[in-house]
Amino acid sequence: MASRTSHTHESAQQLKEDLHHLTQTIEELVNATADDSRSNIKELRERAEKRLRDTRDRLEARGERLYGETRDTLTHQADACDRYVHDNPWTSIGIGAAMGVVIGMLIGRR
């Protein structure tokens, strides 16, 4: 669990750095357009486009990785729950009945 938290922190830090670099490049581009020197604008525009592509690619990769990790975790938890119910059917029935009573009492209080 600690490694997952560390990994999430590193991903967030990398995202923060990517967005900072992208913002910095866009600010340079905006400042250069006020100067109106054509060669400078072209160079900054190319850098901004490259950073934008790189940032988008990283974000897509992180999103896909996060989706995969979440899917795997949920599948693992659902399998564990299914095994528990099959291994302990009477306990599962008792837990379900107790939850039903508690929910019924909460709804009945309204």
UniProtKB/TrEMBL annotation:
Where the record annotates domain DUF883, the positions are 13-60, 82-110
Membrane topology reported for the UniProt record = Single-pass membrane protein
Tell me where the transmembrane regions lie: 90-108
Under InterPro entries, the record lists:
DUF883_C, DUF883_N, YqjD/ElaB
Q: What coarse category fits the chief subcellular location reported for this protein?
A: membrane
Q: Where is this region: Disordered?
A: 1-20
UniProt subcellular location: Cell inner membrane
* Tree of life domain: Bacteria
Give me the stretches of Basic and acidic residues compositional bias.
Answer: 7-20
A GO CC term assigned to this protein in UniProt: plasma membrane
User: What molecular functions are annotated in GO for this chain?
Assistant: ribosome binding
Q: Which UniProt keywords apply?
A: Cell inner membrane, Cell membrane, Membrane, Transmembrane, Transmembrane helix
Q: Report if keyword Cell inner membrane is assigned.
A: yes
According to its UniProt record, what is one Pfam family this protein matches?
A: DUF883
PANTHER family (alphabetical): INNER MEMBRANE PROTEIN, INNER MEMBRANE PROTEIN-RELATED
Family per record: Belongs to the ElaB/YgaM/YqjD family.
**Name assigned to this protein:** DUF883 domain-containing protein
Protein source organism: Halomonas heilongjiangensis
